[in-house]
Design brief:
Elements: E1 7-18, E2 21-33, E3 38-42, H1 49-57, E4 65-74, E5 77-78, H2 84-90, E6 95-98, H3 102-105, H4 112-123, H5 128-141, H6 147-152, H7 160-172, E7 178-182, H8 190-207, E8 210-215, H9 218-222, E9 227-232, E10 235-241, H10 242-247, H11 252-260, H12 274-278, H13 289-299, E11 306-318, E12 325-338, E13 343-347, H14 354-361, E14 369-374, E15 377-378, H15 384-393, E16 394-397, H16 401-404, H17 411-421, H18 428-441, H19 458-470, E17 476-480, H20 488-505, E18 508-513, H21 516-522, E19 525-530, E20 533-539, H22 540-545, H23 550-557
Parallel strand pairs: 3-8, 3-9, 6-7, 7-8, 13-18, 13-19, 16-17, 17-18
Antiparallel strand pairs: 1-2, 1-4, 4-5, 9-10, 11-12, 11-14, 14-15, 19-20
Helix pairs in contact: 4-5, 4-7, 5-7, 7-8, 17-18, 17-19, 18-19, 19-20
């Protein structure tokens, strides 16, 4: 096996063209994957990981991109020279791919079973009953519950983790020799992510297929890959065995990727970012247990800013056309307090009730019963004018800043608009000056004022969302999965920014996430939710060190630890 290569990329250059201007995206990369091997490609968005994988699949957009030089040898056949028809015989059968976002990769108007059948029909001559039976076998292999139900279900009727399993079933249907997995767990809960990784490992062990696993998270790939390639700005800056890359990284970029994820063993005052490593300015100041204890004494000696008392949120759901509405308790008798200047971490899997609880606190979706006291006053039955005042005091930073920004408004106007509504600033000129000062505070420059949301990266858009929130000078901010879609190093920048703003303005945060490592880093107190109820509540470090509930232990066990 040592010398045999299933696929070998040599000196690959890929350029994109816009109005006759050539932009080289992939710069002379060379790597290989051996039979029965898992190779990970890591790097941030824009590093060239996905473009490289699309080249292997012959899926580069023809009109705007071109392989300018280099070769891709698959079983000694140069894929660069193949016609589209020749590629169709390989794609799906010899080389298959799992995409990052299963919802946009699956056809919403087709049942899941039929979508997997299509690929089998394309490559094999089998009877309809044999094809159906093969699909059900595949669904069992990827550990889907009740394969018959999933076979008949549409994508919107199953969970995110189940959709990803359908995609994996489709990818392995023809028993490919190479499986490319492009960020297959990015948007998933930490526990579902672990299940998908274990599943890929099991399938690979059983079928002996090779896997090219693409991710921005080095801790994640450490649990899966034999070798790692690190990509940065279109180049491979480092490659080696997983142990070598983790235990003895050579390139500053690799060191930064490893260090940017919050440690669960200690709490750095400032998470290191890519630019810190590139400029050799990494701060190693740790927040000690003594500092934390002293801070908590002051925090919890105050009167609470927010009290949630026995809050319930019940939805009615239909189980069939003629059946009665069934009540569903999304939030079930939840009580806790939040103190001024505190960060309360709210953690749990998708569907546990975290966001529903956040929406009830924000009065975006009113609780069915219970009381929510803000500064001692029940906010569940406010008048319109009182609600308007509350909107200024309690704000939210959303998970997807692009969806929450108006694409037709410049960033400056998106921040100015709510300031006008709440009479912040004496004139438009004064408001504009304040907005520019806030944009600079969140790490953007004055030119951002006149640009539109689509002109920014994901991390920059999240900064715009934070700027819009703090422009209203709120006291309580609900951060709803506000870093879950970001690259590890961009996530570190945003977490640092949130902590700096908290220190500067005395903000209080309710920090909602399914990523326990991030929540533990940010939180003073931790609240673990499961099926609408509180499983566990207490000091974040104490719960992490000695969790009492089996559910909390499961969440902690699922965190990728690195080597």
């Amino acid at each position: 096996m040592a010398n045999k290569k299933l696929i070998e990329v040599d000196g690959l250059n890929i350029s994109f063209f816009k109005e006759n201007i050539e932009n080289q995206i992939i710069k002379h990369i060379s790597f290989y994957v051996q039979p029965n091997e898992i190779v990970a490609v890591v790097g941030e968005s824009g590093s060239g990981k996905s473009i490289s994988s699309l080249a292997l699949m012959g899926l580069l957009p023809k009109q705007i991109s071109k392989i300018t030089s280099g070769s891709i040898l698959f079983e000694n056949k140069n894929l660069v020279d193949l016609s589209e028809k020749e590629f169709q015989a390989i794609r799906g059968k010899e080389i298959a791919m799992i995409f990052q976002e299963p919802m946009s990769s699956l056809n919403p108007s087709m049942r899941c079973g039929k979508q997997v059948e299509e690929i089998l029909k394309q490559h094999f001559k089998l009877s309809s009953s044999d094809i159906k039976s093969e699909v059900l076998n595949l669904f069992e292999k990827v550990k889907l519950p009740n394969p018959e139900r999933i076979y008949k279900a549409y994508p919107h009727e199953i969970s995110g983790g189940q959709k990803q399993r359908v995609m994996i079933a489709m990818a392995i249907a023809c028993k490919p020799k190479l499986l490319i997995a492009d960020e297959p767990t990015t948007a998933l809960d930490v526990t579902v992510q672990k299940e998908i990784l274990d599943l890929l490992k099991d399938i690979q062990t059983e079928t002996k297929m090779s896997v090219l696993f693409i991710s921005h998270d080095l801790s994640l790939v450490s649990e899966l890959a034999d070798r790692v390639l690190v990509m940065y700005q279109g180049k491979i800056v480092e490659q080696g065995t997983t142990e070598t890359i983790f235990n003895d990284p050579q390139h500053n970029y690799t060191k930064a990727l490893i260090a940017a994820r919050p440690s669960t063993d200690f709490r750095l005052k400032h998470l290191p970012t890519i630019s810190d490593f590139m400029k050799d300015k990494v701060s190693k100041t740790i927040i000690s247990d003594t500092d934390r204890t002293e801070n908590h004494k002051k925090l919890y000696a105050q009167a609470p800013l927010l009290e949630v008392i026995d809050v319930e949120k019940i939805y009615l759901s239909k189980t069939g056309w003629f059946s009665k509405d069934e009540p569903f308790n999304a939030v079930d008798g939840v009580s806790f307090k939040v103190f001024p200047g505190e960060t309360l971490g709210l953690v749990g899997e998708s569907g546990c009730g975290k966001s529903t609880l956040g929406n009830a606190i924000l009065q975006l979706d009113k609780a069915t019963s219970g009381r929510i006291l803000y500064k001692g006053k029940d906010i569940t039955n406010l008048s319109t004018s009182e609600m308007r005042m509350l909107r200024k005091e309690i704000q939210i930073i959303f998970q997807d800043p692009f969806a929450s920004l108006n694409p037709r408004l410049t960033v400056g106007n998106a921040i100015l608009e709510p300031m006008k509504v709440h009479n912040i600033g004496t004139s438009n000129k004064a408001r504009k000056e304040k907005v520019i000062a806030i944009l600079e505070k969140v790490g953007l420059d004055a030119s951002a004022f006149d640009r539109y949301p689509h002109e920014f990266s994901g991390g920059q858009r999240q900064r715009v969302g934070i700027a819009r929130t703090i422009a209203l000078e709120p006291q309580l901010i609900v951060c709803d999965e506000s870093v879950s879609a970001l690259d590890i190093s961009v996530q570190a920048q945003v977490l640092n920014l949130l902590n700096n703003l908290k220190a500067q303005f005395g903000f209080t945060y309710i920090f909602i996430s399914h990523d326990l490592a991030v929540v533990k880093y940010m939180a003073d107190q931790l609240l673990v939710m499961n099926k609408g109820k509180i499983e566990e509540i207490g000091d974040a470090d104490t719960i992490y060190a000695s969790p009492k509930q089996a559910y909390t232990k499961k969440l902690i066990h699922a965190i990728p630890k690195g080597l």
